[in-house]
Amino acid sequence: MFKQQEIILEAAPRLAATLEKYQWESSPKNWLELAEAKSQNFSVILPFVGAFSAGKSTLLNALIGAPLFPTNIDPETAFPAELFYEPEERITGAVDNGKKIPLSRDDLKHNLPTLLPKDGYVSVALPHPLLARLPHLRLVDMPGWDSGIANHTAAIDNYAARSLAYCVVVSAEEGNLRESLRRALRELAVHKMPILVVITKSDKKPSEDVDAVAEQVHNEIVAVTGQQPFATVKVSARKNQFDELIDALVRLEQNAEALFARNVTQTVVPKLVSFSAHLDTLINSDDLDSEKIQAQCDQLNADMATFATRLDDETRQLETRVQPVLGRIMDRIGTALREDMDSLVSDAMYGGDLSGSIGTTVRLAAQEGIANEFNPEIERYLNRAIEGLPADFSPEINYAFDNGHDDRDSDSPSLTITPTLTTILLPLLKFIPKLNVISTVILAVVGLLESLFANKQKQQADEARQRESVRREITGTVIPDVLRQVRAALQPILEGHIQSAKQKIADTVKAQQTSHIAALHQLQAKLAEGQTAFAAARAQYQADRDNVTQLITSLESAQ
């Protein structure tokens, strides 16, 4: 357990009692409960992604020395499977509303399609020595990224917001990245997550050829993502060669402490600082009397009324900028689709996942557009909204709002990482355009191409004409239709996020106002009891403030 984990868990019960004693409120009200839950069962996610033939399941089976996960299965029957350490074996499946059902090893191999819904997943806890070395990692066997199946895409999108890193698995027999994986990596690059590259089936080729494949894949990932992989390793499940991979996993495990600090501790410390300021209000009260305290309450209420008016005004001004911002985002999406034209035409002509390809391009361009066009507007709005608040108010406002991803395993909650872009785009992540308009054209083209193979002399020229025909159809019909769908989906997302921002600010400031007034009323009550009672109360305030200050110091020094 990390030192900061120990500190939070040890301090949480006493701190909760202290907060209750002072009726101190913050937004969200259950922040301490959330921090305690995440500290009790902290884990981070490492999805293994790749094509269905890449050997992900075989690799994980070999790592634990047991044929636990099914291999060579129908893509439509694949489910995400989370693998992690526990002292005793426990296998469960997620069904409706987060309910868990017990599963057997035999169920994993043969019965999942009949036991789980399409959006279900599996949790596998094992007392394995390797997993014991990775106590904070959950290794996730993901469905193939090139499946083109909607629920698989949704599962992958869900994990994108919850991951420490991604493990990209490529078979040495493939030699390079599939186009589907390239597109997926472009999305991952937006979130700046480390990428561990694993070359499987390294025994199937001479070592120099495997080295060449590893270098090729490494370079392709750099070209696609703009970042160096965390590591590039070669493995062989058949020959039980995993040393490089295990070393890389251990290094990722070592990064988990920094992730805990960033995603748990750094949410707790600002709350403690704010509470410490609240106690200072009680301590620094030598020159106050009942009338002065009441005057402060009245002034605070007046300040809050002014703030509410300013918040409404700023919100209305931001709402007027939604349409221009949306227009610029749509321009980015349209440009991205046209730049991917060659790939889209090939998908249409040769039975590729055209909808999935368009959806990936749309999501990536939308993410980039929102990062560059919308997020700066939100940030300026937040800064303007909190101007003029009382000096001792310190609203803890972050424009990357909660994305609504609950911890997957209720009895073993994992840390939810919340990238700014994902928080806004959650409803759009599952966007798969309806392409009814082009379906008949595609079918006609496919039929024609089949006939062309009987006459190879005409094939090249006719195929070129068909490619141009499909290109015109995509340019003139499909892309405009997709853009209409995206605009209709994206506008309420942006508008809803503005309202979420407004509510976040209002709730945060209201909580601080409530606590501030409660502190002033406590002072009034103690003053009414006389100077002896007031002095004793101030001594307690000081002691509690010292304890909070010490807690802040302990957490910061433990980093």
Summarize the topology:
Elements: H1 3-21, H2 31-40, E1 44-50, H3 56-64, E2 81-85, E3 90-94, E4 100-102, H4 105-110, H5 112-115, E5 122-126, H6 129-132, E6 137-141, H7 150-160, E7 166-171, H8 179-190, E8 195-200, H9 207-225, E9 231-234, H10 243-283, H11 290-320, H12 322-339, H13 341-349, H14 354-385, H15 420-429, H16 436-452, H17 456-529, H18 531-557
Parallel strand pairs: 1-6, 1-7, 2-5, 7-8, 8-9
Antiparallel strand pairs: 2-6, 3-4, 3-5
Helix pairs in contact: 1-2, 1-10, 1-18, 2-10, 8-9, 8-14, 10-17, 10-18, 11-14, 11-17, 12-14, 12-17, 13-17, 14-15, 14-17, 15-17, 16-17, 17-18
What are its keywords?
559 residues; globular; 63% helix; alpha/beta; Rossmann fold; nine-stranded mixed beta sheet
Task: Give an account of the 3D structure.
The chain folds into two domains: 44-257, P-loop containing nucleotide triphosphate hydrolases (Rossmann fold), CATH 3.40.50.300; 292-531, no CATH class. It is 63% helix and 8% strand. The protein has helices spanning 3-21, 31-40, 56-64, 105-110, 112-115, 129-132, 150-160, 179-190, 207-225, 243-283, 290-320, 322-339, 341-349, 354-385, 420-429, 436-452, 456-529, 531-557; strands spanning 44-50, 81-85, 90-94, 100-102, 122-126, 137-141, 166-171, 195-200, 231-234. It is globular. Residues 399-427 and 437-453 have low confidence and may be disordered.
